[in-house]
Amino acid sequence: MAAGKIQGIPKWERKMRIILCVLGLGLSVYALHVELSKERNPDYRAMCDLGESVSCSKVFTSRWGRGFGLVQFFVAKDNPLNQPNSVLGIIFYTLQLGLGLSLSKRAAMFLVFSSWVSVAGSLYLASILAFVLGDFCMVCVSTYIVNFALLFTNLKRRSAIEGMKEKAG
Asked: Helix or strand or coil: residue 66?
């Protein structure tokens, strides 16, 4: 086994995955907390609400804060399928962390695919943030950065696993 690698996977990959997923989970849990607090108390002011055009609670409670603003076209606004984006983030980062433990090629492909979906969602929500809401959300932008970094990490992982499989076979 080469130094700095765990069964063909670079050592940095595991550490980076844990850091990114824990950061993503923390941001998602905080976003959910802000959204639920604002729903219970309209006067609630989150730490990330710095001004009129720098307000994460404004973003989280907008129509695009649930189901990417798209699910409500197919189901009622209060339908259980129309979850806050932060709940989807919690599921995503948990799956990324869990599947990152597997060395299977299938898991690596799913990690890459789900990362591409998260990056597409990040680009969509970033455009809504900038061009529709005219707001800056530090929590949102931080999750976009985490999603792009996870995509990079997952692409490197997939390449390493494919290289392992070629050497073994």
From this structure: strand
Spell out the alpha helix ranges (H) of the chain.
11-40, 56-60, 85-99, 105-127, 138-168
**Using CA atoms, how far apart are residues 97 and 81, in angstroms rounded to an integer?**
23
Q: Which of 113, 121, 83 is nearest to 95 (CA)?
A: 113
pTM given for the model: 0.89
Two structure tokens written together for 9: 């996977």
Q: Which two tokens stand for residue 19?
A: 């850091």
DSSP letter assigned to residue 11: H
Contact in structure between 84 and 31 (CB atoms under 8 Å): yes
Q: The tokens 């696993």 sit on which residue?
A: 161
Which residue bears the tokens 């699910």?
71
Contacts of 102-106 with C-beta under 8 Å, sequence gap 24+, read 103/7, 103/8, 103/9, 103/161, 103/164, 104/161, 105/158, 105/161, 105/162, 105/165
In the chain, the N- to C-terminal Cα span, in Å, equals 17
The per-residue pLDDT for range 110-142, each reduced to its tens digit, is 999 999 999 999 999 999 999 999 999 999 999
Q: Which residues are CB-contacts of 92 (< 8 A; sequence separation ≥ 6)?
A: 24, 114, 118
- Residue in 109, 92, 86, 97 with CA at minimum distance from that of residue 158: 109
Backbone φ and ψ of 5, nearest 5°: -130, 145
